[in-house]
Write a structure and sequence with these properties.
globular; 368 residues; seven-stranded mixed sheet; 12 helices; alpha/beta
């Protein structure tokens, strides 16, 4: 069966004065109906560019160079702007990372939600207003009738984010693209927003593509996840397997940096070095300059995503894939790391030398 969203060989470049930046390079993945799919990686990995490309939101000097974005079987990259606008906001909702900036400051919050409903669903103004107020109430905004008439600057950051979630859900889409929706929020509000997203995704039976740099957020929210590095996917897996048995050294490095309550270390582990310049990426494996297990072959050969059990090329149907020479050519020293995971399933090899708790994401009291 065809997935709700299939992204194949997506490549996005930015033509700058310094050179050509390949922000997304040959990216392929799928999102099934009703699932929450996480995209995680450091800043500069290409996560947000990939998300915005789905809906034609890349501006000059950026260009989608090649690839397909098939939503319900239709390639969104091949349709005209008018047709794309009918999909954007209606069948696919978007939640941006800075909600206050995403809202128009000269219109009330309620007017902006109602306008979306009128445009896509053909509601009369009174009916659109009533629906918008119900949505504001559903996302947990107190006194929704009064907040309908409030301007974005009159609301807190958490309330603005709730309003954008209401807008994204206003037309009952099949997919929501959430681009780091909690980045600008404090940890207590972040917890409530993520809980709300999970509740609404289940209630409305909507799929979510959640972009985040926080593995703790991905762990508590997603069904499957894709780890990105320097514009490419380096690992994909169901969330349990990703955390209990990571197959790529970069994933293991990210896990080691997760803070954990009760951790008595003076400093967190870090992934050494920085993300490479995407104008001139390293030869071979892009992660090899930072990888503690890199060998000479890693600088020569660019590894493809493969099934780590068989070494065969990964396909859309594969839930488990990793891009490391260990699974094709084999590294003489192997990937010698382990992870201790706190939880019901105990401990299992497959992560960094440092300890990493699966529940090590940020914690805080629920507070709107």
């Amino acid at each position: 069966m065809t997935a709700l969203l299939e992204v194949e060989d997506l490549t996005v470049r930015f033509y700058t004065e310094e050179g050509v930046v390949t922000a997304v390079d040959g990216l392929s993945y799928r999102v099934e109906a009703g699932e929450t799919f996480g995209v995680v990686g450091e800043s500069g990995a290409g996560k947000s560019v990939a998300a915005l490309s789905l809906l034609g939101l890349i501006d000059d000097p950026g260009r989608v160079e090649r690839g397909e974005v098939r939503f319900k079987g239709e390639d969104l990259l091949s349709i005209d702007e008018f047709a794309l606008r009918s999909v954007r906001g209606d069948e696919i909702g978007v939640v941006f990372q800075d909600a206050r900036a995403a809202l128009n400051p000269v219109y009330t919050v309620g007017e902006q939600i109602a306008e979306t409903i009128e445009h896509h669903l053909g509601y009369e103004p009174a009916a659109a207003k009533a629906r918008a107020i119900r949505l504001l109430d559903r996302v947990g905004i107190a006194d929704p009738e009064a907040r309908y008439a409030a301007y974005p600057h009159e609301l807190s950051g958490g309330m603005c984010q709730r309003a954008t979630i209401a807008m994204a859900l206003s037309c009952e889409p099949d997919l929501i693209v959430a681009d780091e929706p909690t980045t600008a929020l404090d940890v207590t509000v972040e917890a409530r927003i993520l809980e709300l997203l999970a509740e609404l995704a289940d209630e409305f039976d909507v799929a979510v593509q959640l972009v985040s740099h926080d593995l703790g957020v991905i762990a508590g929210t997603c069904d499957r996840a894709m780890v990105m590095y320097a514009g490419r996917a380096v690992e994909t897996a169901p969330i349990e397997e990703l955390y209990y048995d990571p197959k790529h050294p970069y994933t293991a490095g990210l896990m080691s940096a997760i803070p954990r309550i009760g951790d008595d270390r003076d400093r967190l582990e870090t992934v050494p070095g920085t993300m490479p310049d995407l104008i001139e990426v390293p030869s071979g494996c892009r992660f090899h300059p930072r990888c503690p297990f890199a060998e000479e072959a890693c600088a020569r050969t660019d590894p493809a995503l493969v099934d780590p059990e068989t070494g065969e090329a990964a396909t859309f149907d594969d839930d488990r894939a990793a891009a490391c020479l260990e699974y094709t050519e084999g590294l003489s020293g192997g990937l010698d790391y382990s992870v201790e995971v706190d939880g019901e399933r105990g401990r299992k090899r497959g992560g960094p030398d440092a300890e990493a708790g699966r529940d090590a994401g940020r914690e805080g009291d629920p507070d709107a």
